Structures are given as structure tokens and as C-alpha cells.
Amino acid sequence: MRDHSPKSMSEYLETEERIAEAMEWVSEHPNARPITKVAEIFNVPYQRLNHRLHKKNSKSTRMQTNLKLDQVQEGALVSYLKRCDKIGVPVRLNQLAISANSILKKSHSDPSTPPPRVSKMWALRWKQRHPEWHIKRTTPLESARAGAHDVEDIQWWFDKYKAICDEHSIQPSDVWNMDETGFRIGIARDQLVLTQDPDKRQFLPAPENRESMTVVEAISASGGAIAPMVIISGKTHQVSWFQHLHDNTLIGVSETGYTNDDLTLEWLKHFQELSAQSQQGAYRLLLMDGYGSHCTKEFIEFCDKAKIILFNLPSHTTHIIQPLDVVVFQPYKHYHAEAVDASIRAGVGQYNKLEFLADFERFRARALTTSMIRSAFEKTGLVPFDPDVMLAKARQFVASLSSNERAQTPSPREQSTPKTQRTLRHQLDTILDDP
Q1: CA dist., res. 188 & res. 205, Å (int)
Q2: What residues does each domain of the chain span?
């Protein structure tokens, strides 16, 4: 099996450079023989050098006869790669193959035959034909370094955000933030209660339903919100489950209960339809994180056609810049926990997806008020525009990270790896229950 790794490709190109030098030397010394001696001097394989001297091109420069994409399709793929690179979410090799297959499927016009497809190995060969694109390994940033990195870049990000809003005359009602959050359907939070016995531990029976459900929300700086997308786990669902939801609520079903490329594209079409009803300018700005499902070729193309400007939030800063994260989702989770608690006190044994969907519109309405949404954009410095708010928060965050690292050294028990299913489940529950 051939080695298609970056290292192997680099060695191949270095050998080709030495072969070119050997061929130039032979052209200047036409009587130099034997060729085996020349190959030895320049440290190149004799057969490859002999092939080049007989006017045979290398595989890297030879005209390809089995290209899957034509010139127009190749141009569309390169445009997508440049767009992703520009917005700060470079494409992985497997995404390259997925995008190419999407282009081939869209261009295929014969319903009697399946569309052509490329393999993962095709992506490596594509890279070899395009040396202007480089394969680089991403390096995770430690929390303190990530925070410092954000402080350095945050002013630049705000300047770019302001420039886009000014260039396209984007109104507050056309500035949107989209994000998703997960709910553990039957899990309530700790509650404060009154008791005459301060030393007695207090318990409240809780449902054991730990099933997850994902909700995708979008809010605008003018204080509005569109109907959400609710993603439930499973393969099928019953219409009767959703009788308590708003008519415009979009329902998604996935086996995991989490979003995916197809569901994210469906949400975008949903957003286009509903947000256009309050649109004031020619363009809408959509603030979002750099999650992979948000940067597929289909997603970006749809945004371009609908004049939706995608603007990714800086890495490691969604906890201080994203309006939904900063203000909205915390009370959202709080009101859900209150609904679970009220159900428990009413004697409901299991708080399942049916109870969740029945209560959903009530606790959502309490979190997504006009004043709450406007406060979210104000506290993140987006509308009205005030980057100093975020710079102060970022510096404070970095300072807290540094002080915590100096003051806290985790005990061996805190660092230990769980060795039983029960211990693993306990640690997982503790993490997921932490607001």
C-alpha cells in the first residue's frame, strides 16, 4: 500500500528536485555515462531518472486522465476552501471529499444512475495536485494561553464586525446570533428549601430520565427571536407529541439527539424564512461559532444566495461574546429545572420528552423576553457597539485563570481516572449538572 502521508509527499518532491538537477547536468554533459553513475551522484532512483531523460513526466505533473471533477466543479470546490479558510474554519481532508461528493451529486442529471463519488484517498491526491494548499496540524491551546490569545485578537474582531455592519448598513434587527443548547430532560437542579433542622440532609425524589434533547435558538439585537428547532433522539416521532409547540417550531429527529449537517441546513432554511419577515436592510448578519455543521458547502452557498453574512465568533470566547451563552441560556436552563421540580412536587414519576415538550413553550417564553435578548447584545458589546465591555471581561477572565492555576493544585483523587462504570457515571453527572 502506498504511503500518502505529508512526509512521504515531501520526500517525493525533494527527490523530484534532485532529478531535475540531474537532468540539467546531463543536458550540459550529453556524453556523460553511465546514467547509473549520474543517479548515484545525485542520490536519485535510476529508473525514475531514466524515465525523465526519455521525456516521460512525473506523476505529479502528468496530465490526469481520471479526474472526477471538471474545471467548473474544481473552481467551486476551491472557492469553498478559500471561504472556509477566510472565516477561520479550515477544511479537514475528510470534509474535502464530502464537499466534492456534494458537488458531484448536485451536477448529476441522470436519475437512472448513481452520481459519481470520490474516496478519502482522492482528497490526498487532490492535495498533491494543488501544492498551494498545505496540510497543517492544529495545536490545542491551554486555557490560559487561549484566553490571552483572545485578548490580543478581540479588538481586531470587533473592528471587523463594525466594518461589516457599516459596509452593508446592517440594522440591529438584522444582527442575529444562533446557537444550540442541550437539555437533560428529567434532571432538576439543587433547590433551596426551608427547614427547622439545619443538620439534616434534604432530599427530593427526582426522575431518572437522563435523555438529552437539543434546542437551536436565534435571537436578534432588536429583541426578537424566531421559533426554535427542537431535535429529539430516535428515528421516528408522533405528531401528537408536538401539539403544545408553536406552529412555526421546526422539529428535527436524529438517532443521537444532536444536530448534524442535514439538520443544520434545514434550520438555515427555517431561519431564512422567519427572519426575513422582520428584515429591514438588504443583508442579515449571523453570528455563530465555528462548529463544522455551520460551515458545509451547502450552508455557505445558501447564505450567499440569501444575503446572509456569516460571521464566526473568535475561538475560545463564546462564553463572553456570544449573546445566547452570556445571558439567555442560563435562565433558560433555570426555568427548565423549575418545570422539572414542579412536576416532581406534583407527583409525576417520570419527566419524559412528552412532559418536556408540554412545558417547553412556557419556560422558553420566560427566558426569551425582549428585555433579556436586548440585554444579551448589550452585555457583549455588540449592540450598541462597545468593544471595551468585552476587552475588560477578557482581561478579567485571563487574570482569573492565572490566579486559579497558582492557587489550586488538583489532588490525586481529582485527577484519577474512573475505573468502574459507577464512578464514571458519577463524574459525568457532576460535570453535566454544573451550570
Answers
A1: 10
A2: 6-53, 71-129, 143-189+207-407
The dihedrals phi and psi of 96, each to the nearest 5 degrees, come to: -60, -45
Residues 175, 418: Cα–Cα separation, whole Å: 45
Asked whether residue 255 carries a pLDDT value surpassing 90, the answer given is no
d(CA 385, CA 378): 8
264: β partners: none
Q: Which of 236, 234, 299 is nearest to 262 (CA)?
A: 299
Q: Name the amino acid, one letter, at 242.
A: F
CB half-sphere exposure, 227, CA atoms < 13 A? 14
CATH superfamily name and code, 143-189+207-407: Ribonuclease H-like superfamily/Ribonuclease H (3.30.420.10)
pLDDT digits (tens, 9 = 90+) for 320-358: 889 999 999 999 998 988 888 777 777 666 778 888 898
Side chain identity at residue 407, one-letter code: A
First to last CA, the chain: 50
Is-cis flag, bond preceding 34, omega within 30?
yes
User: What letter represents residue 105's amino acid?
Assistant: K
Give the model confidence (pLDDT) of 172-203 as tens digits.
Answer: 999 999 999 988 886 655 544 455 566 655 44
